[in-house]
Amino acid sequence: MRAPEDRRAIGRRRIWLLVAAALVPLCLLLVLQYRWLVSLERVSAVAHRATLDNYLEAVASAVELHYRSIGERSLNLPAALFTPDRLHKAAYHFAKKGGDEAGRLFVVGFDGEDAGRPLFFDRATSALAPLPWSEELRAVYAAVAPWKVLAAKPGTLERPSLQVDDRDPDHRSIVNPITDEAGRVVGLAGLLIDGGHFEREVLPRIVADALPEFSAADAAGRPLLTVRDGGGREVCCGETAPARPEEATRALGFPFRDFSLGIHSRHRTAADWARRNFALNLGLSALLTAIVAGGVLFALRAAAREMRLSQMKSDFVSNVSHELRTPLASIRVFGELLRLGRVESSDKVREYGELIETESRRLTHLIDNILDLARIESGRKSYQLAPGDLERVVGETLRTFRPRLVQSGFRLVHRACPDPLPPLALDEAAIGQALGNLLDNAVKYSGRSREIAVGVRREGDWAVVWVEDHGVGIPRDEQPKVFDRFHRVSTGLVHDVKGSGLGLAIVRHVAEAHRGRVELESRPGAGSVFSLWLPLAPAAGEPAPLGARRTSEA
């Protein structure tokens, strides 16, 4: 492999290493981000579920605390009151400590003739009295019966506590067994829970207070709570629950052990929220990754382009140095021979003088190309367009170029236009330079072929100058690039032929400045035909195709 190819291969490897160094950590970061988001999705779902469980726990705890507080305050009577002659004094305790939310209060003593008979507290009279037979009374007798049996048996109750009897769900009661110093059950203090009051007043208040951070303005974020009794009837809380399973459930507990609590997110389930957050975060991560990757690739592309330009300019300097050195060496050698007087024949003197003039023109041509490129890139290149004879310009250029062709062993075929061409709006020097660049390109890439054809023809409203060689040809994928500055065709021959890479770029610029174009027809191994298309001058009365344009932009 040749040195330039080595440098290009090393440059490409460096670029790919830079791409890998930038994109591999980025991809790794995206994978880690994805795994973190998956973990976050699970944690978010668990956290959301825990929040809903805590809400249910708060509601259940508040209900239990509410009724335990009422029971402990209202039903904690001294054992001394539970005698036949003192039981009526329990009314004083109920009047003092039994609030409106205590429901219907009652006491039962297990001594005397009325043992086991409930007496109910009348708030209007602040006295105890029996009730006529009713469903309420039947429920109370059912709640008292086990304790009456326990009181009749020998034995003690070490730690009495509030007990719930819910065998009749419509008339559930809380009872507090009263024991004497010996631990014997001597009576009961109890209350019948007002279920309607619980559903209308107590439960809605507790539900509303369970999450105080949800204000009325933020009601859309408040979850929906459903409370169902033992029969499945929804008893709270005035809003229709969504038709989907509850996200979290639990029993209500004391004193409504057959009630159940269920909770829904108002709009989305915990899984929905987790999936939505996952998709949102993943999308943002992917977008940011794509932006960063795009920036990295853009920077790498710019770096690669700069490397290519640097390499192209390095090759350009090397090639131009060679192009300058060759004619200068020839001029120096022939000049020294003439100066030293070693050439005696006048024919040889004339020959050497022509060779010096040819190499000087070649050197001038190269320098003109470099200067023209500098003017084109800076936007200062101008063309003086005036009516001119294209055939004459082509002939003069060929006369100037012929000695070099003859010296290199080429046969030049000139095919003039069969029909006379009208005057064209031309910058003759620029057209001559463009034709010279095409001839120079044909000489360099003719390979073993030693014939170059140049001709002029008319194609409708166009005059066409063409240059044909029978050399190495140009691959199809390279053809659109040959008119770019510094570009050289990547065939094997290009490494053996020096050149500046400017000639065809200047040809295209000259053609466009004349409102024309340059075309290429080529096949590898069959040679190339470059055609310079120039518009003919308009007929009388028609506007000039070039107008007043004098300066061509790069």
Estimated structural class: alpha+beta
Task: Give the full name of the CATH homologous superfamily of the domain at 381-535.
Answer: Histidine kinase-like ATPase, C-terminal domain
Shape: rod-shaped
- The CATH topology of the domain at 381-535, please? Heat Shock Protein 90
Explain the overall architecture.
With 554 residues, the protein is of the alpha+beta class. Among the domains are: 75-196, 2-Layer Sandwich (Beta-Lactamase), CATH 3.30.450; 381-535, Histidine kinase-like ATPase, C-terminal domain (Heat Shock Protein 90), CATH 3.30.565. Helix content is 47%, strand content 18%. It contains nine helices and 17 strands. It has helices at residues 3-74, 90-97, 135-152, 195-210, 270-339, 346-378, 390-407, 428-444, 503-513; strands spanning 104-109, 119-122, 127-129, 163-165, 173-179, 185-192, 224-228, 234-236, 248-253, 256-264, 386-388, 411-415, 424-426, 451-459, 462-469, 517-523, 527-535. The protein has a six-stranded antiparallel β-sheet, with helices on both faces. It has a five-stranded mixed β-sheet with strand order 12-14-15-17-16, covered by helices on one side. Helix 1 (3-74) runs antiparallel to helix 4, helix 1 packs antiparallel against helix 5 (270-339) and helix 6 packs across helix 7. The protein is rod-shaped and about 165 Å long. The two termini are 36 Å apart.
